[in-house]
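Q: Given only this backbone (382 positions), what sequence would you predict?
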């Protein structure tokens, strides 16, 4: 649901009544994961998606009905071999969708409005809701902040459940994950009786592009398309200008290795080294390969790559650190133009992030919609 927070926040500020359908569980192959949402207001306007088209019509009708009834409902959609015309996922998977009405004065609307406003401002937060459990708890929620404080709760007699939920949501927020958590109704960590859908919203991940060249301009556009906050860094002020990189969020004139040492990065950060110059590359990569970032790639020919590896070894970079370097950067698409090269690099970044192989789906034989690495789905930027 937080993926459409900006639009929903506008609806809430305008005082509209609406219902939100959120994917709370996925089994098998499905187009979208937990947290994907479709919302419908009282005028029939719809935003978002839960399935990429397979069951949108049926979910839309559920939202309209929920607005009339004022009741939270949980519905399962799956493929039906018996009835080819039944509403279901043609990809063969199953999704559970929770539909929550948010009419004026409805319980939980104030908390939801606070969550939407927080996310719309770009602040980090996790929103945890009961997706399976006792009827009186279904849809009840907590809004959890990075420091562990929270608003909302599950009502009298559930203080321990509140505390456990807040702790679980904070842990997922720390890593920017969205997914489900199974608990007991008394708040213990023993699975059984209760399933929470925890949606995390964190600032978008960073992509830092080193080297203000024409290939970098194309990569900036690709990075923005993928939801990254993109920074261009180059030590040469004549090249690192807003006129050359109008799509970049930040343009920094500094020596790349010096900038990287002092800027904020995390486990989602992507570093793309396009400088193609040893005096920039080697000091920068020596720093980058020792940082806990998601991706470090460098442009260059195979001859450049071999020379770069030799220089890095001489600079004291270990074999283990060197193994993290993706060079030459990009998947083999036969790219020639800056735009094609940016697509090649973006494809490798997505494959690394999602555990993809880079092999054509027509011959891979692997599931198209595979379960992500880890217990929960990584958040989009994003």
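A: Predicted residues:
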């Amino acid at each position: 649901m937080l993926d459409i927070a900006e639009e929903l926040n506008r609806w809430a500020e305008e005082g509209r009544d609406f219902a939100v359908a959120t994917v709370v569980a996925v089994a098998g192959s499905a187009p979208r994961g937990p947290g994907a949402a479709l919302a419908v207001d009282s005028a029939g306007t719809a935003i978002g998606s839960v399935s990429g088209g397979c069951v949108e019509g049926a979910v839309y009708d559920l939202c309209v009905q929920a607005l009339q009834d004022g009741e939270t409902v949980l519905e399962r959609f799956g493929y039906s071999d018996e009835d080819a015309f039944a509403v279901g996922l043609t990809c063969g998977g199953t999704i559970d969708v929770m539909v929550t009405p948010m009419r004026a004065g409805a319980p939980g609307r104030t908390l939801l409005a606070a969550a939407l406003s927080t996310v719309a401002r770009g602040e980090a937060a996790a929103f945890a809701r009961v997706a399976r459990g006792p009827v009186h708890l279904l849809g009840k929620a907590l809004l959890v902040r990075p420091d562990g404080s929270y608003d909302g709760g599950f009502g009298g007699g559930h203080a321990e459940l509140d505390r456990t939920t807040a702790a679980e949501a904070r842990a997922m927020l720390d890593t920017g994950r969205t997914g489900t958590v199974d608990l007991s109704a008394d708040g213990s960590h023993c699975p059984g009786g209760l399933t929470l859908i925890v949606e995390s919203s964190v600032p978008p991940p960073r992509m830092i592009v080193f080297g203000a060249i024409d290939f970098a301009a194309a990569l900036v556009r690709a990075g923005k398309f993928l939801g990254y906050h993109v920074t261009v860094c180059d030590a040469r002020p004549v090249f690192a200008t807003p006129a050359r990189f109008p799509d970049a969020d930040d343009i920094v004139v500094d020596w790349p290795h010096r900038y990287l040492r002092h800027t904020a990065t995390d486990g989602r950060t992507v570093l793309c080294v396009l400088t193609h110059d040893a005096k920039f590359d080697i000091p920068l990569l020596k720093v980058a390969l020792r940082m806990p970032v998601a991706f470090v790639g460098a442009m260059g020919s195979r001859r450049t790559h071999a020379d770069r590896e030799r220089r890095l070894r001489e600079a004291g970079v270990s074999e283990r650190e060197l193994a993290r370097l993706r060079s030459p950067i990009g998947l083999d698409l036969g790219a020639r133009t800056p735009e094609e090269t940016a697509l090649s690099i973006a494809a490798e970044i997505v494959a690394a992030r999602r555990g993809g192989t880079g092999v054509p789906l027509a011959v891979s034989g692997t599931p198209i919609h595979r379960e992500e690495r880890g217990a929960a789905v990584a958040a989009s930027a994003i």
